[in-house]
Amino acid sequence: MGLSVIQEQHDVILQEIKNITQDDWKCLIVDRTSSKIIDNAVKEDDILNNNIATIEGIEDRREPNPEMDAIYLLTPDSHSVDCLLADFECRRYRRAFLVWTNLIDPNLRRRIDDFPGVRQLRASSKTLFVDFYPRESHLVTFRDPWSFPMLYHPSCNALVPKHMQSLAQRIAGVCITLGEYPKIRYYRPKNAFHEASVLSAHLARFVQEELDGYAQWDPNFPPPSNRPQSNLVITDRSMDLMAPLIHEFTYQAMAHDLLPIKEGDKVTFHTTINQGTAEEQDKDMELGEKDKIWLDNRHRHMKDTIDKLMGDFQKFLDQNPHFTDENADTTNLNSIRDMLAGLPEFQEMKEAYSLHLTMAQECMNLFQHNKLPDIASVEQTMSTGLDEDFRKPKNVLESAVRLLDDEAITPSDRLRLIIIYILYRGGVVMEDIQKLLTHAALPPQDGEVVSNLELLGGKTSHALKEPHQAPLPLFPKDPKSLQPNEEYSLSRFEPVLKPMLDALAKGTLDQTVFPFVKPPLDPNEDLLLAQGGSLRAGRPNWAAAGRRPPENRPRILVFMAGGATFSESRVCYEVGRERSRDIILISSHMLTPQLFIRQVGDLSRDKRQLDLPMERPKPRAPAHLFERPAPPPMRQPPPGQGAPMPRMGGGPGPAPGPMPTPPPTQAMGNMNLNPSPKPASGGTPEPPQPGTDKASKKKADDKAHKEKKKRNFLGMKK
């Protein structure tokens, strides 16, 4: 089995829980962020089957359980620390095993260390470095779209250092989880004029410091491996402004561009299954690693995806001839969907095929309705600088303006076309930008989207007589080496990331544009690795390098600051297959063309309107966490015995009130701090229940025990 970052994170989290429980039942306490991290990688049953009695949210109302230990798997922020200290204050659990998803700030750690009685309450404290969300086996995001304005908005300069530190810790966390201590390189653009041009250099140094610090703290890092040292490349959105704008016609990218796919804790598409039958229902279908059809087709060209879906369905009919309708047309997507509705015996397969046939059909409908073939033809010419015959193009402006006149072209596609044209030209006169927007019937404020691209290094305007030229590609291609392919002529453009990864894998990546943070002693070591042997050898081992077993394949990690595109994710898999590498793409968030244009437009908005999480008021721990349990009610005396006791000095006095609640330290002294004994048979002990004795434990019903285990997962009542 090949590398999967999802599985790696799953194993790290689960192993830590196993190390702490050690066959003794414990509670697992999570906050909202850590629960999302866990839920993204680990199944509920995997956790509950490792001696976890309950999983509860730290903000929720919880019954005190002073006879049981708790594992706190928390985000290292002030809110979680407030809630933790509230639990300490009321001695909610016997002992606390603290597990942080990332490095905790020294000031927050000091607050915990200074808490009275912390030595008795805190059993251990550990950092896991799992503060990230693997989305695919080789794709990691931080689910942080606010990273874009914090890095590029002119008014966010004061926030950049703190945000970069956070990014660096998370990038280092991915490396640590994968057991990688990579050589770090970064993108240094030539002739850059934008302020953020130093972004990659600073971030790369931050990551290097984080990894160096961890290596000094953990002498066993990195773990022993037969793999060569990995590479980490830090780059940012300014390296390729075309990729987020171009219409991409591979299945995943096209679907995210055209369809209302919902991005949340899960990636889902709302569709109707069993359409036209009694079982018809609307359903949010997840698009993820468990969906084999999605997994097999997401990087295929849409034409090939449809052929594959139809071919697979025809193969199913051949294997199950009793389902075949002789009059059905199995070459038509709608006919196949109708046939699927009549297969109740294959519900899961039916839903999966129905989902993807629906998505493919809707994509193709929009492809034709919005005249995407015409748009893409012009886009490909401008983005590559070559026409379909790989020659210098002619009449580009006329072709673009003709499309701007077409009412079938949507306003968002017109704006994308204008931006691509301006980037292709290396900027135009400001008056021409306004003319293009007016001609396209677009609002004047769309001009801000164009001008804001300069904050990302895009040249969009110049003076009337100012000399200028079209920008040179970072990795120029030789037109003579390119072969025309009519079938895929609308997919000639490739993201800059592809030739960059290809050059890195071959050991030929330009060290002036992509320098090392720490230059290696041998500047040719990557070239030697690519050749699979020594340059002094009689012949290079090209074939041997391609036959590496999956566990020994060299690894390349790429961090794309400012968001990554699905086309860039695709090329990581493609180059990985071609060059026998495991290439992991990491980014703050995934970009669609609509999101990219909106975020670029926001760069000219008032910072206060952006609702940046870093500037929101800090949440406070809920008041109910500080509530003390009510004292037990006083037993009423029998009739005739309720007279008040006389005072020592004689005379009646007031009836005694309820006993005061003991202070926390006194209450702690009354608790049983000894761990519950393990059974002599060596089996797994039952989870102790508060307020029960051994006899009642033996009589506990097994069904009730299972219900208790599943009573609460990630703060959600079952």
UniProtKB/TrEMBL annotation:
<feature type="compositionally biased region" description="Basic residues">
    <location>
        <begin position="706"/>
        <end position="718"/>
    </location>
</feature>
<dbReference type="GO" id="GO:0016192">
    <property type="term" value="P:vesicle-mediated transport"/>
</dbReference>
<feature type="compositionally biased region" description="Pro residues">
    <location>
        <begin position="629"/>
        <end position="641"/>
    </location>
</feature>
<feature type="compositionally biased region" description="Pro residues">
    <location>
        <begin position="653"/>
        <end position="665"/>
    </location>
</feature>
<dbReference type="Pfam" id="PF00995">
    <property type="entry name" value="Sec1"/>
</dbReference>
<dbReference type="InterPro" id="IPR027482">
    <property type="entry name" value="Sec1-like_dom2"/>
</dbReference>
<dbReference type="InterPro" id="IPR036045">
    <property type="entry name" value="Sec1-like_sf"/>
</dbReference>
<protein>
    <submittedName>
        <fullName>Sec1 family domain-containing protein</fullName>
    </submittedName>
</protein>
<dbReference type="InterPro" id="IPR043154">
    <property type="entry name" value="Sec-1-like_dom1"/>
</dbReference>
<comment type="similarity">
    <text>Belongs to the STXBP/unc-18/SEC1 family.</text>
</comment>
<feature type="region of interest" description="Disordered">
    <location>
        <begin position="612"/>
        <end position="718"/>
    </location>
</feature>
<dbReference type="InterPro" id="IPR001619">
    <property type="entry name" value="Sec1-like"/>
</dbReference>
<dbReference type="InterPro" id="IPR043127">
    <property type="entry name" value="Sec-1-like_dom3a"/>
</dbReference>
<feature type="compositionally biased region" description="Basic and acidic residues">
    <location>
        <begin position="694"/>
        <end position="705"/>
    </location>
</feature>
